Amino acid sequence: MVPDQELLKQLPGRIQNATAQGTDADCVSRSFCPKLGIAEDPVCGSAHCQIADYWAGVLQKQKITAYQASKRGGTLYCEPLGARISISGKAVLIAVTDIVAEL
After folding, report:
1. Distance between CA atoms of residues 20 and 32, nearest Å
2. What DSSP designation does 73 have?
3. Among residues 49, 73, 71, 53, which one has the least CA distance to residue 63?
4. Which residues contact 48 (CB under 8 A, 6 or more apart)?
5. I need a labelling partner for 20 at 20 to 30 A (CA). Which of 2, 9, 76, 101 fits?
6. Distance of alpha carbon 1 from the chain centroid
7. DSSP per-residue codes, 55-69
8. CA nearest to 55, candidates 13, 22, 12
């Protein structure tokens, strides 16, 4: 899949996700964020809040395994918990920061 990033910018929302039922995982996905200056998120946890809920319902499963098929790729273990989604998997710390907001 090689989406046109300029066309994606014209769609509503900040991120565009493509997903399908998987063979080695319950589902596969790709996440594109050109409006945020990110052509493709390699493994997008926030996208899987929607993707996991959708596939858990379709597949009638309490927990699903999702694979994000970006160049880097990654596996997410997802469990819908009512209004929240539990997501786990391997992660790499890339930055530590403090956010300061003036009131």
Report:
1. 15
2. -
3. 53
4. 29, 66, 68, 76, 78, 85, 87
5. 9
6. 16
7. HHHHHT-SSEEEEE-
8. 22
Q: What is the pTM of this model?
A: 0.82
Pairing assessment for the beta strands 74-81 and 27-33 based on DSSP bridges: unpaired
Half-sphere exposure of 5 (CA within 13 A, CB side): 10
Residue 91 burial class via C-beta count within 10 angstroms: exposed 0-12, middle 13-18, buried 19 and up? exposed
Please report the domains of the chain, with CATH numbers, ordered by start residue: 5-88 (3.10.310.10)
The one-character DSSP state at 7 is H
- Cβ–Cβ < 8 Å for 46, 13: no
